[in-house]
Amino acid sequence: MHRDKESESVMLNFTSSIPLGPLLSNSSFSLTGGAVAVPKDSFSNALTKNIVAMLVWLTLSVINSSMVHTFLRHSLFYENPRYIMFICMVINDALQLTLVTALYVASYIFRKIHASVCCLLIMTAVLTTRFTPLILAGMAVERYISICFPLHYSHMCTVPRTLLLICVIFILTATPPVTDFLITLVKEPPSFFHTTVFCDHSLLFRDRSIYYKNCVFDGTYLSCVALTLLFTYCKIMLTARAASTGLASVTRARNTVLLHGVQLLLCMLAFVVPSLQAALISLFPRLSLEIRYIFFLLVYIIPRFLSPIIYGFRDELFRKYWTRALACRGSIIRVRPVVQKVNLKVK
């Protein structure tokens, strides 16, 4: 029993590379200095923060659902690898935002939840967090091929290859949380998953090998994604300079990859924020709840607005069908058939 308390205190001190736990610890413990209680939010502050979080979630959910609806209604998007990867990212972002918002709101209501439920939520949230940078790299490569190898695009970027790439990305992103679970299954007693815990990655997956494994994995694949975006951007820039006239498609592709780079930087914030957040909380302990809330918005909310901007508003083809679908939804006119009675006079 004493070891469990000591272990919990140690785990609160060391910051996990997974960003979900620290950001969702609203009123439990400080991330630095052991099990030191942080000041609780007043009812009005807590209510305001949760209402804002729910309104943002609702707004993005409406936008994302309308995009998915537009994609499903028009078969021409099924044959384009770019839109297939885009809609996968939209669905992933919607799922991640729903999970993170639910965990954020639930952390104000329930201090501890069942370990098995927390495990499922954390694993899914971590998977969706890691999925976004890898799908961004795939979309950047697709833009690079379309600009630099336009004659070979139809052979290199096919729907089966795109689906295969998405499956590979899913396996890569699912491997770390699955191995986290397997290591915990071996290291912890079976009764651990029947207990109640505060839903935090570092408190749920407590073995130190998990922390080092995730650091290696995150560093490797984020470096690969960053190099991929840099390579494709430079190649597209060189193609734009080599062109005799300014091609609008090249300019759009360059700007798209540049926006992907901005998205990647915001995604990488999720992996450096825990350390930065812990440092700020140690300097300003009375503002710990506000610091967590600001980072919650910065890391999990703002990047989700970029996906609709990049392909929802900037892409002419998708914008055409998307606005048409929104206009039809806004002005639905129910037309009822009018049955006219005809009197047949028999002469």
Model description:
This protein is mainly alpha-helical. Helices cover 75% and strands 1% of the residues. The protein has helices spanning 2-13, 20-24, 43-73, 81-109, 115-148, 153-156, 159-187, 201-204, 208-242, 248-283, 288-313, 316-330; strands at residues 113-114, 196-197. Strands 1-2 form a two-stranded antiparallel sheet. The termini are far apart. 37% of the residues are buried. Residues 1-38 and 332-347 have low confidence and may be disordered.
Q: How many helices?
A: 12
What is the CA-based Rg, rounded? 24 Å
Write down how many β-strands occur, each being a DSSP E stretch of 2 or more residues: 2
Uncertain ranges:
1-38, 332-347
- The percent range for strand residues is under 5%
Task: Order the strands across the largest sheet as they lie in space.
Answer: 1-2
Query: What order do the helices and strands follow?
Result: HHHHEHHHEHHHHH
What is the overall silhouette? globular
Distance separating the two termini:
102 Å
| Main sheet characteristics | 2 strands, antiparallel
Structural class: mainly alpha
The oligomeric status of these chains comes to single chain
Question: Summary?
Answer:
Helices cover 75% and strands 1% of the residues. It is an all-alpha fold.
Question: Layout of helices and strands, plus pairs?
Answer:
Elements: H1 2-13, H2 20-24, H3 43-73, H4 81-109, E1 113-114, H5 115-148, H6 153-156, H7 159-187, E2 196-197, H8 201-204, H9 208-242, H10 248-283, H11 288-313, H12 316-330
Antiparallel strand pairs: 1-2
